[in-house]
Structure formats: C-alpha cells, structure tokens
C-alpha cells in the first residue's frame, strides 16, 4: 500500500508539472428541443496561465457522427444568425479565447472538419491573458464513439505544448476521461477516506 501511494505521489507531481495548460470537455445542457434530436453538445475548454496561442485536435469517430449544421462552417458562427437559423447554434466548430469574431486561422494536413472526424490545428493572432476559454464546440450523435488526441499551447508552453491530459475518448456521444485518470480520481477518494478514519 505504501509503495502504491508513493507511485501516486510521483504521478501527481508529473501532472502538476504540466499544469499551465489544462484542457477539459464539458457538456452543454441546452434548453430541451433546441438542440438537434439525437445529439449531445460539448465545449472544449482550456485553462491557460498565459496567452493562448494554438491547439491541435485529432478526433476520429468509429461510429456515429459530428453535427455539422448546413449553415455553419469550420469556425464559430455569428450569433446574430441564430434567430434565422436556430440549429446553427449547435454546429461543430473551432474558436479562440476572444470568441466571435476574433481572427482564427486553421492549418494542417489538410484542415478537416468532417462528419466523422476533426483533424485540425488552429490559432489566433491576439495577445490575451490567463483564463479559462472555450476553444471548440463539438456536437456528437448519442451513438458516437472514437479516439481523441491533441495538444494545446500557450506562450509558456511554446515548442512542446501540453497533451490533452487527462487523456480522453468518445463513447455514447460523450467525452470520457481515460481509465488512468479514473484510477487517480479513485485514489484521491481513498486518500480522503484514510484522512477521515484518522
Ligand atoms: Ca492568443
Ligand atoms: Ca461546422
């Protein structure tokens, strides 16, 4: 038990060493009836402690689809259009900390925002500050499953970037943390129990 606790401490230190960029996927719970039937909406959120610069995301679905609105494109839509095209609000898109209409560039091999995959790098040209920012909206069908990888960069992590950590995958139309993360969370719970018993 002591040995496994020591390993946990080492793991926790390794995680905190990379803590300047922390990226999570948070479900948006829209008013029922407003989101296209059979889909779940997620925000990709990044917590940076310096100017956000760019991100890379590779999301490959093996089943299900991404929702790409007929009136949308790869980038965040203009909210003034939502009155005319309400489902546009739930499009899958990339964005930047400044939100609409900040300049965002999309690059890579090739930039691709499709019905079953995202393989894209994106960036802004704005010098921002530390904070928690939405950098993508990803709308998944409830039968979506697949793999997720990527990196997020701020000024402090240029050159290396920070891997999406915890790791994530897609199942049941949801972003799910990798099992290794669940183990850490469980061990945190055990720690709390041990403290209580003292
Ligand atoms: Ca920036
Ligand atoms: Ca789209």
Bound molecules: calcium ion
- CATH architecture, by name, is Sandwich
Largest sheet: 7 strands, antiparallel
What series of H and E elements makes up the topology?
A: HEEEEEEEEEEEH
CATH class: Mainly Beta
What's the domain count? 1
Radius of gyration: 18 Å
Q: N- to C-terminal separation?
A: 17 Å
At the fold tier of CATH, the topology name is: Immunoglobulin-like
Q: Label the overall shape.
A: globular
Structural class: alpha+beta
Look at the structure and give the mean pLDDT. Answer: 84
Number of helices: 2
* Beta fraction: 35-45%
- Helix percent reads 10-25%
The low-confidence runs, each spanning 5 or more residues with pLDDT under 50, are 5-19
Q: What's the total count of β strands?
A: 11
Description:
This protein is an alpha+beta fold. The protein has one domain: Sandwich (Immunoglobulin-like). Helices cover 18% and strands 41% of the residues. Strands 3, 5, 6, 8, 9, 10 and 11 form a seven-stranded antiparallel sheet that branches. Strands 1-2-7-4 form a four-stranded antiparallel sheet, with no helix packed on it. Strand 10 and strand 11 form a beta hairpin. The radius of gyration is 18 Å and the shape is globular. About 8% of the residues have low confidence. Bound molecules: calcium ion (CA) (2 copies). The site of one calcium ion has 8 residues, from loops. The site of one calcium ion has 7 residues, from strand 3.
């Amino acid at each position: 038990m002591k040995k496994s606790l020591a390993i946990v401490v080492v793991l926790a230190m390794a995680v905190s060493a990379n803590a300047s960029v922390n990226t999570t996927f948070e479900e948006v719970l829209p008013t029922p009836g407003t989101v296209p039937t059979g889909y779940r909406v997620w925000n990709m959120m990044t917590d940076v402690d310096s100017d956000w610069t760019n991100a890379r995301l590779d999301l490959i679905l093996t089943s299900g689809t991404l929702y790409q609105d007929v009136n949308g494109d790869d980038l965040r839509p203009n909210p003034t259009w939502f009155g005319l095209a309400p489902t546009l609000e739930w499009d899958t898109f990339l964005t930047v900390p400044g939100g609409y209409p900040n300049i965002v560039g999309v690059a890579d091999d090739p930039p691709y925002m499709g019905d079953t995959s995202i393989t894209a790098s994106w960036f802004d040209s704005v010098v921002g500050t530390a904070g928690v920012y939405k950098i993508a909206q990803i709308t998944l069908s409830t039968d979506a499953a697949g793999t997720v990888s990527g990196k997020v960069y701020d000024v402090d992590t240029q050159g290396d970037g920070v891997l999406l950590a915890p790791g994530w995958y897609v199942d049941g139309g949801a972003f799910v943390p990798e099992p290794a993360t669940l183990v850490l969370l469980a061990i945190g719970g055990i720690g709390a129990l041990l403290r209580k018993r003292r």
